[in-house]
Amino acid sequence: MSDTTRLIIVAVGGQGNLLASSVLGEAALMSGIPFRMSEIHGMAQRGGVVESAMVFGNAQSNLISDGEADVLVGFEPLETLRAMNKCNPDTVVITNVTPLPPFTVAIGKGVYPPIDTILELIRGKVRTLISLDATALAQQAGNILAVNMVLLGALAQSGILPLNAEAIRKAIGAKTKPAFLDANLKAFDLGVQAAK
Prior knowledge:
By secondary structure, this protein is of the alpha/beta class.
């Protein structure tokens, strides 16, 4: 394994991508692991795409070029598929399977492809695909908005980041409002279990 791990997170605005990135950054700081982060905001406030790139380890740049991602975490299946250009045959992909159809589909101007088709296309391009219903698990944890924490749990379980689950749990504690802490930790744990 190289001394750097490159992570891309893609989500639709409002899904908690930035909190997830902030938690991972905090966990890296607490673990003494160098990291760099950049965010590309689409029309986040209008349900557009938000992409975060994080590089753990000693890297000169926080930009992740096409084919360079070691791991891709997608909060929405079609956005995960759209980000596949960042992946290579060794990339680990973790995706939520619950669609959040774009505006064009909602108004009947587009068609959302079947989830099985999306997953098959992803599976054909990468070494490992971990797909889970993070939305259902977030609901089970008591907070529908905790999809980000479920996916962080799956990411921790994958073992691909140089961070352990305990460091991420501590960072969730540091970055989460007290009212949401229990649900977020429960969501994280459900994500760990689902990815086993």
